[in-house]
Amino acid sequence: MGTGTGDETETEADVVVIGGGVMGTSIAFHLAEAGVRRVVLVERDALGSGSTCRAAGGVRAQFSDEVNIRLGARSLEAFARFSRRPGQEIDLHRVGYLFLLSRPEDVAAFEAGVALQNELGVPSRMVSVAEARRLSPLIVPDGLLAAAFSPDDGH
């Protein structure tokens, strides 16, 4: 796999990956790790300089369906060991993720989501407005009914 400096000219490849953001670099890494010998990663600018560097960076397992809950939890596990594999520190901060809820129907939906998350091993929980303010003192509580929090999520 080339270094991506733009100095190399590859004329043959088993796989060409277009885009050097989080998805493209991950695909190229995993292909090379799996034994694909000639992987070329094409990126027009610096690696990670497109939409990847503009993302907020929030990572969570708080979702309302099993597939995304499992994917989020698995992603959090992978990010936690990222410094060992593939070997780059990503400065993960597991400070929690807090959803503020101001409509009764959202409270009901999040209560169902938290129940499913808990069944799948995610330590999320419903919290009162007072606890949400303790977790994040800058919250303006006007109109809030409840919140959902998971301490393992972060950025």
Task: Produce a short descriptive summary.
This protein has 155 residues and is an alpha+beta fold. The protein has 4 helices and 5 strands; from the N terminus they run βαβαβαβαβ. The longest helix is centred in the last third of the chain and has 16 residues.
Features:
single chain, about 160 residues, 2 domains, three-stranded antiparallel sheet, two-stranded parallel ribbon, 4 helices, about 15% strand, Glycine/D-amino acid oxidase-like deaminating enzyme, oxidoreductase activity
Question: Can you walk me through this structure?
Answer:
One of its GO terms (molecular function) is oxidoreductase activity. By secondary structure, this protein is of the alpha+beta class. Helices cover 32% and strands 14% of the residues. The chain has four helices and five strands, in the order βαβαβαβαβ. The protein has helices at 22-33, 66-80, 104-119, 129-135; strands at 15-18, 39-42, 97-101, 125-127, 146-150. It has a three-stranded antiparallel sheet. Strands 1-2 form a two-stranded parallel ribbon. It is elongated and about 60 Å long. The model has no long low-confidence stretch (mean pLDDT 92).
